[in-house]
Amino acid sequence: MSVKNGINGWAGSIVRINLTTGTITTEDTLPKYKPYIGGMGLGYKVIWDEVPLDSDPLGPQAKAVFAVGPLTASGVPCSGRMNISCLSCWSKGNSIVDAHMGGHIAHAFKYAGFDAMILEGQSDKPVYIKIDDEKVSIEDASHVWGKGTFETNATLSKENGDTFDVASIGQAGENLVPMSTIITSFGNSGGAGIGAVLGSKKVKALVVRGTGAVKIARPMEVRLLSNYMIKDLVGGNNNHNVPTVPQSWAEYSATSKNRWQGGPGVTWDKAPNGPIDTGEQPSGVINVAAMRCNKGVFDFGAVAEKYTVKQGGCSSCPVRCYTEYELDPLADYDLPTHVSNTCIPITGQTGIYCGFAHDFVDEGDAKIVLGGAGSRAQDDYGVWCNYGNLKTDFARAYKDGILKEHMTEEEWNEVPWDLMESGDPRWAVEFYKRIASGKGAWGVIGKGSYAMYKEWGLDDASKNSAGKNYYDEVSSSNTNVTYNGYPKHHSSEECWQTGLLYNTAYNRDCMIHVITNVVRSGSPFEAVIKPVAESFFGEGCVDAPKAYTPINENKVKLAKWALNEKQWHDSATLCNWMYPMMLSTSKKRGYKGDLELDAKYMSAVVGEDYQRADIECDSERITQMLRAMTAISFKVNLGSTNLRKDHDAIPAWVFDKEPDFKAFEEGTVKMDREDWEKSLDLWYDALGWDKETGIPTRETLEKFDLGDCADKLAELGLIK
Amino acid sequence: MSDKKRFLDKDYTRRQFLKLSGKSLVGVTMSSAMLSTLGVTAAALAEDKVKVWAFPQGLLVVNPDRCVGCQRCEINCTLTNDGCCSSYISRVKVTRNLYSSRNGEGLYTENNWTYFPDTCRQCEDPACGNACPMGAIYADESGIRKVDTEKCVGCGACTAACPWHMPTVNPVTKKSSKCVMCGACVEGCPSGALSIIPWDKVSAAAQAI
Questions:
Q1: For residue A62, what is the domain's CATH number?
Q2: Are both A292 and A426 inside the same structural domain?
Q3: pLDDT tens digit string along A149-179?
Q4: Of residues A154, A290, A338, nearest to B100 (C-beta)
Q5: Rg of chain A, C-alpha, whole Å
Q6: Is B116 helix (H, G, I), strand (E, B) or coil?
Q7: Which of B100, B102, B105 is best to mutate for the A interface (most A CBs within 10 A)?
Q8: N or C, which terminus of chain A has less Cβ within 10 Å?
Q9: What is the pLDDT of residue B33?
C-alpha cells in the first residue's frame, strides 16, 4: 500500500503472475516505469521489453498487462479507468492494442496496492485471479467456466465476500473469439479482444478487494481542485458545456444535440419513490453535476425517461454516463429487465435485426427495448462489437447474401431467423450466443472485420458475389477508417482532417474524444468553440460543421495534441470522454476551460512540480512507442516496410461519398485525396516520422529515450 | 442563540412526530409535515426510504434514489480526514453497498440499482463508545463523538458493536476512525443523495407548522 511505502500517487508495486508455473512475484513500479506514467504507457513498456512482436497473441509468449496510473483513485474526478495492453488477435499486423475498462475495479485494484498486474504464460485449467490487498492467488474457476459474465460476477463477488469487485470474460473469450471483452460492474467493458487473450490463458476473472489507500502529497489541494473542476468546468458527458433543455441561469442552450440532456422536466421515472426531476443544474454548483448527463435521453430520446431508475458510471466520476434502466417490456419475453450501458453497445443493437426492428409500447421505442436486450446479451456472452463493426458486418453480409453462401444448409436452417424477422428481443440472445461459440460462419464474423473480409473475399470486389469491397463501399453501414479492420471513432465527419489523422494512429478504433467533446459541445461555434479552440491552438485549427477548409499546420497541431492527450488519459488514468477540460460551463470564464488542470492535479497528488509540457512529453513518448511497435509488427508479421501505405491508407468512401459535392464545399464532410496526402506529410513532420514510410526516425526516438526502439527498427532495416 | 438551539428548545410532543429510524444527535425526531416542507416526502419517510440525521450544520438527509454510486463521498471524506484517498477507512460508506452487499442489494444482485451511502448516526447512546475498552470515543463540546487516537488501541470493538459497523480501524495506523461530521461528503456529492438542510431552514419550517 502506498501509504505504507510512502510513495505519493503510485501504489508502488506490480504483481506478476505466471499462469504456466503458478508463480506470483511483485516488483517496484518506480523508478523504472515513471517515464511511462502508468496504465497504457506502463503496459507498452512491459510488452516492448518482454514480448517478441511476432508472438502469437493467443500463445504462451503473449502477455496481458492490467494497469492503472498515478491519478487513478487519487480523488481526481473521472479517474476510475483501468487499461489493459496486449497484442491484437484480430487487427492487421497483430500489433499492440489496449482495452479500457471503467466501473469500480480500477479503484479497488489501486487500493489493494498495485499499479499493474502482468499475466504471463497459460494455465491448463480454468482459474481466476484473486487480489485481496497484498495477498494474490490463483483460484479454481471451473464452476464458473462456461457461464455468462453476469452470473460469474455475481457468483464470485458473493463467494469471496460482499466487498469484492469482479471483472470476467464470457463464453466468447473462453472460446477464443477475437471479438471479445472483459466485463465489470454493469456493462462496463474492456474490448479489443482481451476476452480471447484471457481465454487463451484460461483466466476467467479478476476478483479484487482493496482496503488500502493512495497516498496524496497535498490532499486538500486535490479536494479544492476537484471542487473547482466540478463547479466551473464540468458539464455533461464528453464535457458538453451547455444544456440542451433551456435553463434559467444558462446563457445558451445547445445548438446541436449534445450530451447534457438533464434539466427541468427531464425525469428518472422509475426511481423507487416516484419520478425525480433532474431540475436546474447551474454552473458553479457541485450537487447537481450528476443530474446533467442523462445519457439515456441522448441515446434514445425522451422515451428513455420512462425506463430510467438512476444514472450509474465509474468511481470518482460526477457525470454518470451509464443510465440504469428497468425495461419492463422485456419481461414479456422472459428476458432480464435491468439493463445499463452507454453509446454503441446499447444504441447499435437494432443493426442485428437487418431492418426487421419494430416498436413495442411507444412510438420510437424499438431502439431502447432492443438496445437493452442486445446490450445485456452481448455483455453476458462477453462479445466485443468493435465499435459497431460486428453488427454492421453481420447485417451487410446477411443483406448481400454473403452469409448464406458461407453457411452450410444445416447451419443456416438451425438459426431461428423468425426471431430476427419478427423483431423479437430474444434474437439478441441467439445472435450473441452464436458469435460467442466461435463456430462456423458465426466464428468468421467473430474474428473481426479484417479476417472476415479476407476469408470471404470482401476486401476485393472481384472476389465476392456482391461485387463489393467492404472497406471502400460508399454506404451508411460502412465506417471502416483504414484497411486494418476497425471503424472510425469521431473522425472526419465531425473533426475534419484532424479527426482522420488521429484515427490512423492505433491498431483498433482510436477512442479519441478530445476534439468531438468540443465541436459537439452544443456551444455556438462562432461565439464559443472557435475562439476558445483558437486561443489554445491558433487560427484555423477548427472548422465549422460541414464547412471544411484545406489542411493547415494548426489543424495538425490540434491532432497531435489530441493523440498525445489520449495516451495521457489511458496512462494517468483519466477518462478520455471527459478530459481535457478545454471548455467550461461558466459564462464569466467565457466558457474557456483549463488545460493546465491535469498538471495541477499531478503536482498536488505526486508532490512534484508538473507542467503541461512534462505531461505532453511523457505522453508523446508513448505515442512514439506505439508507432515503433506498430512498424515492427507490420514488418515481422506482414513483411511491410511502409506504414504510410500499409497502415495509414484511407478507404475510398471517405473521399467518394456525397458525389454531388466537391470536398471543402459547404454542406459536405467528404475529404480530398490530394489534401489528405498533404495532411499526412504535415502529420509525419509534426511527429518526427519519415514522410515516405511514416516510421519514427532515430532522432525522434532518441529524443524520447527510446534508443532501443530505434535499434530494433534499424536491425529490421526500417530506419537507418 | 443559534438556529439549532432555538429549534431544539421547542417543546414538541412525541405524538406530533413521526419516529425516524435510529437515534439522532440529541434524540430529535421530526414531524412528517415539517419534513415535507423541507422536500422530504411522507411516503418516503414511511417506507424508510429517506434517512434523516441531525448534524451541527443542519439535518443530514440521505436519499438512496439519488445515489449514483460515484464514491465521491468516500473520496472527499478521506482526502479531508486522512490525507489519502481510500474507500475502506472512509467514515461514510458506499462501496461496500455497491457489489453484493449483505442486504442482497448492489450491482451484482437482483436489486442491481439499490445502493447508497451509510452514514454515522451520531447515536445519543453510542454502541461504539460503550464498547470501547479504552474509553477512546468521547463527545466533544458540540456533542460530536470522536476517537481519541492517543487512547485508541485499534482493537475493533467499536466496529463490531456499531449496528452499522461504521467506525473502521485503519489498517496502516491501527487506529479507529469515525465520522466527525465535517460535511465533506455532503459538499462533494454530485447528485444530492447526501444533503444538509441548514438549521435556519429547519427552524423556519418548524415555525410554519
A1: 3.60.9.10
A2: no
A3: 999 999 999 999 989 999 999 999 999 999 9
A4: A154
A5: 24
A6: coil
A7: B100
A8: C
A9: 57
